[in-house]
Amino acid sequence: MSAEIRRIIAWQPVLTDHQAFTYQELSRQSGLPVQVQVARLEDETRRAQGWTDTRVTGVERQLIPARGFLRHGMRLLLENRDQVHVFGSAFENPRMMLLLWAATRLRLECYIISEPYSPVSFGYFGDRLAWRERLKTWLRPRLYRGYMLALRGGLKGIFTISRLAAQQYAAAGMPADRLFPFGYFVPAEPVEQPQAAVSVASGQRLHLVFVGSLIARKGLSTLIGAVRRAIASGADLQLDVYGPGDPAGFDFDGERVRYAGRIPFGGTQQRLPGHDLLVLPSHYDGWGVVVNEALCAGVPVLCSDQVGARVLVETFGAGQVFARGDEQALADLLVTLANRPERLQAMKSACAAAAEAIQPARAAAYMLEVLSAEPAARAAIPSPWYRTA
Predict the structure, then answer these.
(1) Superfamily for the 206-357 domain
(2) Which of 10, 173, 285, 344 could join 307 via S-S bond, C-beta 3.0 to 4.6 A?
(3) What's the pLDDT tens digit per position in 99-119?
């Protein structure tokens, strides 16, 4: 970043803790204010799932007025031509997309933070009309090629949330040396009332936990089926399920497979200790912050290969990845871990290094290093969370 940079301006449809803690650390480490322009203060769909407003107070958040949105946004771009602009999730909001396009036409120092688009025909937050979701699945790669055709000449780079995002943007035409592997990051939180640690020993019951919405995309039926297969094969397991939605659509028995209700927003790390494994069997998750939360709580993770945060599991060895929808493969893995406690202990031991590496301070340090480097040197900066091939 040049000496003339006085602030970093982030543009978000809505600000959540996924990004806010990193922005706060970015401000602290750079010594520059981070000003976040948002299209709305809260997301109604996420609020219905139990989310609340961001807990971060260290960044300035400004609501772009709905009336005169584009005029107001253009004025801010023109008044801050010499500043750094970071657009998060810009393709969710058509007006934010127009401002992003305008920023690239003005040749501003402009970056994107982006998840991958969903490659599967499941509704993102719920279960919707199948034909509409299939149409969206067909359209997305074509739309993104169009986005990159319009934007790539003016974009300085994209912080890609998962390997899949990097692959998709490369396929859409973004040069590889402007793709910077990234993620979502939330801080580790002290456990206020530590629960008794679960001992790892052969013959003891394995306690599993699922945290997520009770929707088809999350793959809960695959997990329940795998647990029942593993129990039938002699594994001693118990699954606790937390999340918003209707439990009536799932095969809970109240004993070995239990629905335990919702976890209050921000309370996941408090609830996870006392479990041996978090299992996230999603058919698709752009990232999956619950993986971060589990690792910060010292709980290893089994997740499908369609979870963006699988990279954390693979890089640090704090769990294992299985094929999406493969009930038998997951059941076999559960049986193995139930019978080989040394493997589970190795996963648990790896959580500490993973938790240290996924703090927002590390994310901000990497982002700041990329933003401060000469363009030709940015691609060589190693991401702390991704192994190179």
Answers:
(1) Glycogen Phosphorylase B; (3.40.50.2000)
(2) 285
(3) 999 999 999 999 999 999 888
